Amino acid sequence: MKVSYIVAIAVPVEEFREALADVAGARLSRELRPGQVVVVCDGPEVELAGVRGVTWVRRERPEHLDR
Question: Which residue, 24, 41, 42, 43, is most buried by CB atoms nearer than 10 A?
Answer without folding.
Answer: 41
